[in-house]
């Protein structure tokens, strides 16, 4: 019987999870600043209006972290300079996070 060595894939998984958690944390922090600065929410929004943005925006941030990982990790396969890959991944992250904020706040604060 042969034993397989999967130790090389573990650092990549840790790096992927780390980037996704950082992206979700940035999204949660940013949307929390918007939501908790609201003094008197509109009664038409309902009692639990904060739940949707608090779920959607961190998910968008996590997906931005996933895109960041793939763009930076596979830049050499595509033949792109690492600086350009990092800049592109930051732009993709910001656009994805902005779209998550719009989707999360649609119908409440984003009218």
Order of SSEs: HHHH
Integer-rounded radius of gyration: 18 Å
Q: Report helical residue fraction.
A: over 70%
Integer average pLDDT: 87
Low-confidence stretches: none
Distance between the termini: 63 Å
Total count of strands: 0
Number of helices: 4
Beta-strand share of residues: under 5%
Q: What gross morphology would you assign? A: elongated
Biggest beta-sheet profile:
none
Structural class by helix and strand composition: mainly alpha
Briefly summarize what is shown:
The chain is mostly helical and 111 residues long. 70% of the residues lie in helices and 0% in strands. The N and C termini lie far apart (63 Å).
Structure, described:
It is a single chain. The chain has a domain at 49-111. It is 70% helix and 0% strand. The protein has helices at residues 9-35, 51-73, 75-78, 82-105. Helix 2 packs antiparallel against helix 4. The termini are far apart. The model has no long low-confidence stretch (mean pLDDT 87).
């Amino acid at each position: 019987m042969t034993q397989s060595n999967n130790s090389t894939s573990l650092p990549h998984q840790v790096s992927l999870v780390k980037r996704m958690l950082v992206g979700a944390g940035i999204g949660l922090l940013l949307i929390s600043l918007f939501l908790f600065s609201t003094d008197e929410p509109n009664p038409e929004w309902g009692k639990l209006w904060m739940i949707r943005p608090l779920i959607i925006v961190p998910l968008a941030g996590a997906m931005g972290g996933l895109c960041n990982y793939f763009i930076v990790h596979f830049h050499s396969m595509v033949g792109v300079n690492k600086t350009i890959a990092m800049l592109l991944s930051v732009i993709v992250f910001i656009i994805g996070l902005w779209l998550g904020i719009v989707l999360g706040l649609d119908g409440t604060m984003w009218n």
